[in-house]
Amino acid sequence: MIGSRAGSLSLVRGNAYNCRRGFKGSDLAKILIVEDNALNIKLFCDLLAAHGHKPEAVTDSRNALDAARAFEPDLVITDIQLPHVSGLDLIRMIRNDDNLGAVPIMAVTAYSAQGDEERIRAAGAQAYVSKPISVVRFAETVDELLKDGHDRAAAAVLDDQPEIDDPESRANQSDDGPGPGEAGGEGD
Ligand code: MN
Q1: Chain mean pLDDT for the chain
Q2: Separation of CA 12 and ligand 1 centre (Å)
Q3: Taking Cα atoms as reference points, which of 33, 104, 94 lies closest to residue 69?
């Protein structure tokens, strides 16, 4: 079981990552965190890992776009108040990137002045959570965005496919399994 590292890599997508609490609303997801505050990075990483995800953090927003291109995240969580490249600019850059344009983005911000949410959403983020974060709201928002992203990706794949004559293979493709969607009701 404790075999070669190369061998275990392929298992990571299945169930080898963090099993402390098992999987909740979504499968293991790669989540890029862009945040300049070390305590927040630790908090977000711990939360996401506890939910079975694979977080990766970037502290310098100037490296964030390259990191996102390399990591190919399922979700980006970005601070807004960042030195160098602001969170709003980063959101726009991600939205305009050929390969990252469809990745869901969640903004986290310490100051919610009037109009901030509109600006953040106009830049291209789907969700917005203010600091200090509510752990429950943070986790729920992550789950929602991952589910939305998953649904969109699945729809895009189906759209791209030529018509399929065999109804059985069509049925197999839309089979999502019973898991997602059932696990969201816990935080009320
Ligand atoms: Mn900051």
Answers
A1: 79
A2: 31
A3: 94
Residue with tokens 């399994």, as numbered in its chain: 177
Pairing of strands 127-130, 105-109: parallel
Kindly report the backbone phi and psi dihedral angles of residue 70, in degrees, each rounded to the nearest multiple of 5, phi listed first. Answer: -75, -40
Q: What is the CA(87)–ligand 1 centre distance, in A?
A: 9
How far away, in angstroms, is 103 Cα from ligand 1 center?
Answer: 21
pLDDT band at 149 (very low <50, low <70, confident <90, very high): confident
Q: Tally the C-alpha atoms within 13 A of residue 31's C-alpha that lie toward its C-beta.
A: 31
Could you give the CA distance from residue 56 to residue 76 in angstroms, rounded to a whole number? Answer: 10
Query: Separation of 147 CA from ligand 1 center, angstroms?
Result: 27
- Regarding pTM above 0.85, the answer is no
Q: Rounded to whole angstroms, how far apart are CA atoms 57 and 36?
A: 9
Is residue 29 pLDDT above 80, yes or no? yes
User: Among the CATH numbers 3.40.50.2300, 3.30.565.10, 3.40.50.1970, 3.40.50.150, which is that of 16-162?
Assistant: 3.40.50.2300
- Residue 27 CA to ligand 1 centre (angstroms): 29
How much distance in Å is there from the Cα of 108 to the middle of ligand 1?
9
Confidence at residue 27, expressed as pLDDT on a 0 to 100 scale: 65
Cα of 71 vs centre of ligand 1, distance in Å, is 22
Rounded distance between C-alpha atoms, residue 109 and residue 81, angstroms: 7
